[in-house]
Amino acid sequence: ECYVQNTAREYAKIYAAEAEPLEGFGEVPEIIPIFLVHRPANNIPYATVEEELVGEFVKYSVKDGREVNFLRRDSEAGQKCCTFQHWVYEKTNGSLLVTDLQGVGMKLTDVGIATLTKGYKGFKGNCSVSFIEQFRVLHQCNKYCEMLGLKSLQSTHQKQRKPTSTKSKTLPNSTTVKKTVP
Q1: Any idea which GO molecular function terms this record carries (predicted)?
Q2: Where are the domains of the chain?
């Protein structure tokens, strides 16, 4: 738990360094640190400790991407969390995704990380690899994605799909293009 959250925190720090200087971007999400405490005299010798977050606790993203969350899409914090996910996805070439973003305002806790099956640079996440594909398909870019110059995931997803036969496609300028699949 500590390893996952603190790893995500390091990505959030790099994201903040890129996003904060941009005119109009404003405050960025912060993943709070979590610490492992050894208590040898206790029945449960290990515990985690983190800052107490006071206020309305909101889930800005979910682990599996199936739940529609209007606070994610309609709030500034939610949009910036989605942009953070997109930024991490792009920086790791689609190999890692910080997910399950939740907290109070811009302070986040209890996050998850999904990685490809082989992991990413020696790190294996605690969420299913399917979360990466679901994010790629479901993510809708917002103004913060545009401010950071992130590439649309929808066009990436469409480009990676291979046609199974020869097709004619009419483009908006009425030109016909034939694609041949080897």
Answers
A1: ATP binding; protein serine/threonine kinase activity
A2: 1-150
DSSP 157-175: HHHHSPPSS-EEEE-TTS-
Instruction: Categorise residue 164: left if φ over 0, alpha if ψ from -120 to 50, beta otherwise.
Output: alpha
**What are the pLDDT digits (tens) for 134-166?**
888 888 899 999 999 999 987 654 444 444 443
Cα–Cα dist 165/157, whole Å: 18
1-150 has CATH 3.50.30.50 classification: no
What is the predicted pLDDT for the residue at 62? 63
The tokens for 81 are 């969390």
Tell me the angle at which helices 76-91 and 130-138 cross, rounded to the nearest 10 degrees: 120
